[in-house]
From TrEMBL:
Pfam families: Sulfatase. Keywords: Hydrolase. CDD domains: SGSH. It comes from Halalkalicoccus tibetensis. The keyword Iron does not apply. GO terms for molecular function: hydrolase activity. Belongs to the sulfatase family. The keyword Hydrolase applies. Residues 5-296 form the Sulfatase N-terminal domain. InterPro entries: Alkaline_phosphatase_core_sf (IPR017850), Sulfatase (IPR050738), Sulfatase_N (IPR000917). This is Sulfatase. It comes from the Archaea.
Length: 445
């Protein structure tokens, strides 16, 4: 692998693995080509099924309850004061670091360690569509293309390139949709339904609209790749394409079922990374240590992830046997922790909530309208266990089955041990929101 390559980290909202290269019946030619020219990770999962906590894990190599971002960054949650962020590490390694488009990790982007912020978008995805003019895929990628010649100097560069899509947009009627006047939807009759949801008109409508946004993401990725080619630095640049969690659909975003925590992970550097598909379990906390090893930097002990650089270069790799996911706060308190192995998913829920939690944007959407009543009751079990080999869409909770008693006990012990080892505050009781002191400061003096 080229010594200390440039790094372009392209990331978007709410995409999951809804791409042609992952088997979805969608048209994503530029992304699919990127996948064919590089490494595709089939079993890449994020630490959380929501934006800010998962993005913070990608950028710190630590789980949300370790780095402090257990809820959305625009909703009073913040990283711990002593957290270090990927551009900070790479800057120390001699990289010039640049932010294009959204970040959605902190309200204070100056703390993230970027040398230059080119077009950081609005932090909250809930802002009106008109506000998000600078962080749409086509606009952000165009800004990068305009700047790429200036980035190529004696030092390698790191560019974080963040796209708003596929985040839902709240329209004038208060419905959260995947559409505004800049996207051309597919035909709802032509889309393939999702295997974990009913084939209902509202779900088809949402998927058809999402494909319009998806074309914008594909165009944005293509613009970045073309800019690298035109600058003559494609072989000197590692391109990573990823997302922070699954589709903003019921039983996906806001849940730790696989559709909620699955995420695209593609990596390409011509002549340096061996093209191919990888089935090993990968967590998004693993990306930071991989990049640090690539840059020749030591991986700090506090980093929870582990480098998978040998998978990219053909070296020996000790594969993961398990990974972890979590959620604490989103638009309501929804505390849960999960462990996933190759075959099993074990989930521990710590609060009274509906059988399937719907985030606010999913609940108030055409797809959410189709399933809201069904998913709102009964109260979910405190424990869930799924045999992913027999039940890949996690429909049958077998935690109380005698046939799975040993598996449940083993995974329960492993999850509890991980929570103890990482000082998970949930073990001490309910986790208050980030504005707890403000809530309790009443009556005013």
């Amino acid at each position: 692998m080229t010594n200390r390559p440039n790094v372009c980290l392209i990331h978007c909202h709410d995409l999951g693995q809804y791409l042609g290269c992952y088997g979805a019946a969608v048209d994503t030619p530029r992304i699919d080509r990127l996948a064919s020219e590089g490494a595709l990770f089939e079993n890449h999962f994020t630490t959380a099924p929501q934006c800010s906590p998962s993005r913070a894990s990608l950028m710190t190599g630590r789980h949300p309850h370790e780095n402090g971002l257990m809820g959305l960054a625009h909703a009073t949650w913040e990283l711990h004061d002593d957290e270090r962020y990927l551009p900070d590490y790479l800057s120390e390694a001699g990289y010039d670091t640049h932010l294009f488009g959204l970040q959605h990790v902190t309200e204070y982007p100056d703390r993230l360690g970027y040398d230059e912020i080119h077009s950081e978008g609005v932090l909250s995805p809930e802002a009106s569509p008109a506000i998000h003019e600078v962080d749409r895929a086509r606009e952000v990628s165009g800004t990068f293309a305009d700047c790429v010649d200036d980035l190529d100097d004696d030092d390698p560069f790191f560019a974080s390139i963040g796209f708003f899509e596929l985040h839902r947009i709240k329209n004038d009627e208060g419905v959260h949709v995947f559409k505004d006047d800049r996207y051309e939807s597919a035909d709802p009759e032509e889309v393939d339904p999702l295997p974990y949801l009913p084939d209902a008109p509202g779900i088809r409508r949402d998927l058809a609209d999402a494909q319009g946004m998806l074309r914008a993401i594909d165009d944005g990725v293509g613009t970045v790749l073309d800019a690298l080619d035109e600058a003559g630095i494609a072989e000197d640049t590692l391109v990573i394409f990823t997302t922070e969690h699954g589709l903003a659909m019921p039983r996906a975003k806001g849940t730790v079922y696989d559709p909620g925590i699955e995420g695209v992970l593609l990596m390409r550097q011509p002549g340096s990374i061996n093209p191919g598909r990888h089935s090993e379990l990968i967590s998004n906390v693993d990306v930071l240590p991989t990049l640090l090893e690539l840059a020749g930097e030591p991986v700090p002990d506090r980093v929870s992830g582990r480098s998978f650089l040998p998978l990219l270069t053909g070296g020996e790799y000790d594969a993961r046997e398990r990974l972890f996911a979590e959620m604490t706060w989103h638009d309501v308190y929804n505390p849960m922790r999960a462990i996933r192995t190759r075959r099993y998913k074990y989930v521990r829920n710590f609060w009274h909530l509906p059988e399937v939690y719907l985030t606010n944007d999913v609940s108030h959407s055409p797809a959410g309208e189709e399933v809201r009543t069904e998913f709102d009751s009964p109260i979910r079990s405190y424990e869930e266990l799924y045999d992913l080999e027999a039940d890949p869409h996690e429909q049958e909770n077998v935690v109380e089955s005698a046939d799975y008693e040993e598996e449940a006990a083993d995974l329960r012990e492993q999850l509890c041990g991980w929570m103890e080892d990482t000082d998970d505050p949930l073990l001490e009781g309910p986790v208050p929101p980030g504005d707890f002191e403000e809530i309790m400061a009443w009556p005013p003096e």
